[in-house]
Amino acid sequence: MSSWVPVCDYGLLLPERGVCALVDGRQVAVFRVFDGSVRAIGNLDPFSGAQVLSRGIVGSREDEPTVASPLHKQVFSLVTGVCLDQPEVVVPTYATRVCGGRVEVRRDCSGL
Amino acid sequence: MTRIVVAGYGPTAHRFVETLLERGFGGRITVIGEEPRPAYDRVALTSYLSGTGVEELSYPAPAGAVTRLGVRVTGIDRAGRTVTLADGSAEPYDVLVLATGSAPFVPPVPGAEHAFVYRTIDDLDAIRTAAKDATEGVVVGGGLLGLEAADALRGLGLRTHIVEMGPWLMPRQVDEGGGAVLRRHIEALGLSVHTGAGVQEIVTGEAGGVTGLREPDGTLIDAQLVVFSAGIRPRDELARGCGLEVGERGGVVVDAGMRTSDPAIYAIGECALAGGLVYGLAGPCFTMAEVAADRVLGGAATFDGADLSTRLKLLGVEVAQFGAMEGALDVTYTDPVGGVYKRLFISDDARTLLGGICVGDASPYGTLRPFVGKPLPAPPSDLLFSGAGADLELPGDAQVCSCNNVSAGRIRTAIADEGLTDVAGVKTCTRAGSACGSCVPMLRRLLETSGVELGTALCEHFAHSRAELFDIVRVRGIGTFSELIAAHGRGRGCDVCKPAVASILASLHNGHVLDGERAALQDTNDHFLANIQKNGTYSVVPRVPGGEITPDRLIVLGEVARDFGLYTKITGGQRIDLLGARVEQLPEIWRRLVEAGFESGHAYGKALRTVKSCVGSTWCRYGVQDSVGLAIALELRYRGLRAPHKLKSAVSGCARECAEARSKDFGIIATEQGWNLYVGGNGGFRPRHADLFAADLTTGELVTTIDRFLMYYIRTADRLQRTAAWIESIEGGLEHVRQVIVHDSLGLCAELDERMRQHVAGYEDEWRATIEDPEKLSRFVSFVNAPGVPDPSIVFERERDQIKPAVVR
Ligand code: SRM
Ligand SMILES: Cc1cc2nc3c(=O)[nH]c(=O)nc-3n(C[C@H](O)[C@H](O)[C@H](O)COP(=O)(O)OP(=O)(O)OC[C@H]3O[C@@H](n4cnc5c(N)ncnc54)[C@H](O)[C@@H]3O)c2cc1C
Ligand code: SF4
Ligand code: FES
């Protein structure tokens, strides 16, 4: 079994917005950030217990790409998964790549 | 049990009673007031003419005191410790407090009985009535109160003259140079100023009505209305009547503890002569009230005189005076073109600041007043010209709020000890800033110097406030967030600035909120055009304009809810909320609603929510206008309008107010003649009643006024600032807004009207547009790689026959 799972066409991703993909039954939030690269973290918002992080607003803190939970606005790093407002809270991150115009997510996530 | 009787029920009496109660006084308090209403804020009296209601001016009734209104105290029996009242009754006392204030001085000239004075609500009612039959008015007295009265007459539409005995206007606050600059400002507004003039007689015509005022030199000023505002006289008649010591020129003599020559009787406020002076300003009167309350409770507080500094904005002209009006040295700055005059008085060794006068630009007042009697914080010329002083460190004992006598040290301690983070907190905690408000900029600075960040910067990406960004986008014609942040910001934005800019773009350019780059800026609610719930599902709140709905449509809502398995609830906004929809269900739900002639509504966006209505004249036996018809028209007009925060409205068919219009951002109450418009109401966490903005409007006038009000709000308010907070924060307050909207003082009305025209013409049902656009529609899936699969994490339980979220982790 390949360790990369194709998710969708790159062209389907809106700049600076996210989508949610099912990867082996897990919900992964996939974002296209400002430099055009793709980042992925777990979709579960650890603060609310709801699967919603893919629907947050993408932005930056200093130079780090971030997403804010749509429920209570805690901001997470899209690079490390660390919650920048409460660094002891971390969400899993997933490696991504764009292959032949397709976005792919790696099965194994960090941290979990 | 100690029985305290207070004679007179003005602001001073109120503060006295309030302080006693706050400090736990357990005896009996009886307050006797001659006016037919409880104490009100006399300082703000003039706003009554522009629509502020009596209830708003009134102080909250002190629970724990007995008030007897509309009855005068006529005599004091000191031996029997009893006061007698005009209605023949009597009140025994252990402690009597005289708080009878003062009365306007009316010179004994022929015809004086036809003139008006300017002190009470009743006086203003009488002036307003008389002004209806007048075209010209004269105010006798060019001091602080006289100019305020003149402004009021002007506001009532009269050609207005000011007659001042002294050689220049406001002789007690400004010197000759300042008076000359002030005069030019006032004349430029169309008022005629007669200085060095007096009153020989008030001339009446054959029918008995006033026709003019004759000066001693024979000059006749035509006028049908004359107001005397030529000084005040303490109301010491009760004290005289019972043999208490009074001053040669009036005023009940008191010691530093506010006690009169009879130890059982105190005198406070404008009727008292303290240290040889009668104080005609609210601040010192409040201090007297607090001192007397402390004494009654056994304390030893003293009143040691007070700062008589003033800062005011009259007829749009800033005037300020602080400290002494003379000194060995002085520095003066005059700009006759700009209409600015500033002068500082300094001690002979050029080290100590003694006082200052400002006309046309009072900015030095806030920074320099606390330094009176202290070493100059910078070279005088810097202080006057370069606006330096913004970062001066205030000494702890410097008085910051003169109305409430609060020092810089007290405020700093409160900020540190109570962890205060904003001006509102400082106001509640220390009272500073809660009277005239002129010290608020100082409070802001003290917060800042204590390390509280109050900057107007939106977030780390923009150093600008929302209003500034609005202007940048408007003036530069910017169309996208990327352009804006590249030219005027840094980084890539965040959940604060992106939705704020999205809202600005929506206000300035029509087009769908999900078009192009704009889609990415929106909060999840706007992005999915519905309101997210705790478990990641959404609610749909179909628009029901004015709350009016046919049985058939009601059935459709029931069917939609049943077919999609949604939870239903009647909202507080006269709509029906359908909750628990998954992302992929939303377009299907909208489709069903669109087919039945509904549109989904905003329960989320910073936009118009609902215009509630009562049943109104169509059915209700009390209704005087069709409140439902108007509510529907307004809801359809303003739906979709993006704003700094949500907008709510309501229309009531009569003064019984069943639609609760006065708790709305703009509320309308029907009158026999048309509509009264109220603005700036709020429920929520800081409730505020809306202020009357304009009365008896036709429907056309009403709509134009609301159009401009909303557009001006959208243009200038801060992010997430409801209209209530906006009006309170905007310089000049509601009166400024009225000038802009009703009198077009900034020449903006045409543009505001045009923007609203564009909004109304460009409105489209954004939900319908979304289901008709395949590209937008494709985003409504739970999983990009499994579009048909519902989110398995969304699970419901049942309660009272409906679903409720069960969050599983
Ligand atoms: C549904 C409803 C409660 C209900 O079941 O009755 C409701 C529900 C919500 N209110 Fe409300 N408010 C509802 C009437 C009110 C009212 C009463 C009214 O409008 O007559 C108030 C007080 C009046 C006012 O706003 O001045 C009210 C004051 C608030 C506030 C505090 C606003 C403030 O200025 O203090 C918030 C928070 C905010 O907007 O920042 C809020 C926010 C919310 C939000 C949007 C919170 C959120 O983001 O999840 C809720 C979402 C509703 C949804 O998903 O559908 N809601 N909310 C009412 C919808 C009315 C409608 O049809 O539009
Ligand atoms: C138009 C206007 C604008 C003003 N603007 C400012 C300002 O900007 N800043 C500022 O500091 N000050 C201002 N003032 C002054 C301020 O309002 C007064 O200093 C303050 O009202 C004094 O309060 P008081 O309670 O001592 O007297 P008052 O407000 O005069 O109240 C006394 C009350 O006692 C009642 N009374 C009198 N005799 C009897 C009796 N025998 N029996 C029963 N009741 C009696 C009177 O009817 C009155 O209601 C302004 C005043 C006016 C009129
Ligand atoms: S506000 Fe007046 S018209 Fe409307 S329902 Fe109430 S009583 Fe009737
Ligand atoms: S100086 Fe008037 S409120 Fe502070």
UniProtKB/TrEMBL annotation, chain A:
It holds the Pfam family Rieske_2. InterPro entries: NirD, Rieske-like_NirD, Rieske_2Fe-2S, Rieske_2Fe-2S_sf. GO terms for biological process: nitrate assimilation. Residues 4-105 form the Rieske domain. GO terms for molecular function: 2 iron, 2 sulfur cluster binding; metal ion binding; monooxygenase activity; nitrite reductase [NAD(P)H] activity; oxidoreductase activity, acting on paired donors, with incorporation or reduction of molecular oxygen. Keywords: 2Fe-2S, Iron, Iron-sulfur, Metal-binding, Nitrate assimilation, Oxidoreductase. PANTHER family: NITRITE REDUCTASE (NADH) SMALL SUBUNIT, PTHR40562. This is Nitrite reductase small subunit. The lineage of its organism: Bacteria, Bacillati, Actinomycetota, Actinomycetes, Streptosporangiales.
